[in-house]
Amino acid sequence: MTYQLPALGYAYDALEPHFDAETMEIHHSRHHQTYVNNLNAALEGHKLSTLSVDDLITQLDSVPADKQKAIRNQGGGHANHSFFWKGLKPGGSTLQPGALRTAIEKDFSSVEIFKQQFEKAATTVFGSGWAWLVKQEGGGALKIVTTANQDSPLMGEAVAGASGFPILGLDVWEHAYYLKYRNKRPDYIKAFWSVVDWDEASRRFEESK
Description:
By secondary structure, this protein is mainly α. It folds into 2 domains: 21-86, Fe,Mn superoxide dismutase (SOD) domain (Helix Hairpins); 99-207, Iron/manganese superoxide dismutase, C-terminal domain (minor pseudopilin epsh fold, 3-Layer(bab) Sandwich), CATH 3.55.40.20. It is 47% helix and 10% strand. A 3-stranded antiparallel beta sheet has the order 2-1-3, with helices on both faces. Helix 1 runs antiparallel to helix 3. The model has no long low-confidence stretch (mean pLDDT 96).
């Protein structure tokens, strides 16, 4: 199996004015493509390359020691970005009444409080990393977590310092926003709500049961 760069399903300029076309093109066709290329190179000829990327990054303890760092970084980059693109939608969508909205209101009191807490977590990631809304294992509560670099909650607490099934994810590496927002990461984070695909998040939440 050779890992492939996934198609976005929308044009690079489709998320304007919130996410600009130049950033989207560079982010997808260069940054993400590089993670894919490096992952394929690290796993060339290895039986682990038959796994889906999500399964691969949950099994880092099965990876030869000399390949673990490359697969953690490059596999994490591929998995995280593949998830990120699917969670975006031109024009965004509304969080409709349903299981996910009910869970957010239960675990965070309201959707607005959830957004405030998510924005704070994303803003305070030091350096490069991600902010996530995850569902905890065993049908547990929703939780906001952050990871460094290209770590994913799928890697578990021992590796990533966080765990859970991702429902939403936001890339807060500078390459995701610097051309448009410069050093104003909070503005980029607020813009995220205008392009979130809540229908996809709701589907993920249902899948987690």
